Amino acid sequence: MKKTIFITGASSGIGKATAKLFSSKGWSVIATMRTPEKDSGLRQLNNVEVVALDVSNAGQIENVVKAVTEKHKIDVVFNNAGYGLSGPIETLSDERIINQLNTNLLGVIRVTRAFVPHFKKQNSGLFINTTSMAGIVGFPFDSIYNASKWAVEGFTESLYYELHPYNIQVKTIAPGVVYTDFGLKNLDKSQLPEYEKLSKKFIEYMMGDMSKVSTPELIAESVFNTVTDGKDQIRYVAGVDANEMYAERLEKGKEGFRQNLSRILFE
Ligand SMILES: NC(=O)c1ccc[n+]([C@@H]2O[C@H](COP(=O)([O-])OP(=O)(O)OC[C@H]3O[C@@H](n4cnc5c(N)ncnc54)[C@H](OP(=O)(O)O)[C@@H]3O)[C@@H](O)[C@H]2O)c1
User: Fold this and answer.
1) Banded pLDDT at 244 (limits 50, 70, 90)
2) With a 6 A CB cut-off, is 148 part of the ligand 1 pocket?
3) Residue 167 domain-assigned?
4) Which of 14, 131, 182, 217 is most exposed, with the fewest beta carbons within 10 Å of its own?
């Protein structure tokens, strides 16, 4: 029987590439986005339904999940919508911090909570949450983004125990740097002059070898493998840069990794 994936943040980047890939593999896709008028081509694809959803809107989440679960059997929920707030902590207003957590963390929590009864009833289902290397490693000027993505990692691992008895799987996918609108939308506009040198060093560190950066299509392939590999595994790291960084983190340990990155950034 044809399977169905529900995707958040499908208007661009990883979400859009994943919607296209799953559609090409014969899945039904519910591609959600906060501004469906922005859809550039998903609607025309086979078995893709575009639905309005802003993951920072709790009421809309309830209504959309109710409507789609009445109509479809959902097999996979891909919690992907998100953006990156960056800047030194003292420059970030309450409003910007709350917005970031509301989207990247509460969005994932609320969408997941809304789908759990549906998955329990059918005794199957998979949640896959997009985190980031910033969900595993702390980066300068990303404190709130880091906090949101680390929280999603912990949220997901905790749910494993709760949902395992109902045959519901939970996974995270942590990409490194991906060529999407993410960088453009999240350009750091709140840098302070005293951090200029550190900021420059950090950009050099992250973007040092552009050959290791991923395309959204490559991350979509990883999402597809993660969904279909049948493995008892929660965390998946996606992209050459991310896999190298993760291997180094495991090899050096958390403190060793941080000490080494500190040497690079402050030398
Ligand atoms: N690009 C990277 O380097 C990178 C690395 C690691 C992890 N990630 C993560 O990957 C995920 C996808 O990002 P991307 O790289 O594909 O960037 P992107 O092209 O900017 O896509 C982000 C998507 O999230 C949506 N979104 C943002 N706020 C939303 C909200 N309140 N409700 C619903 N949708 C919302 C955006 O919708 P609009 O079009 O309406 O803004 C867009 O569809 C994010 O969770 C991001 O943190 C990205």
Assistant:
1) very high
2) no
3) yes
4) 217
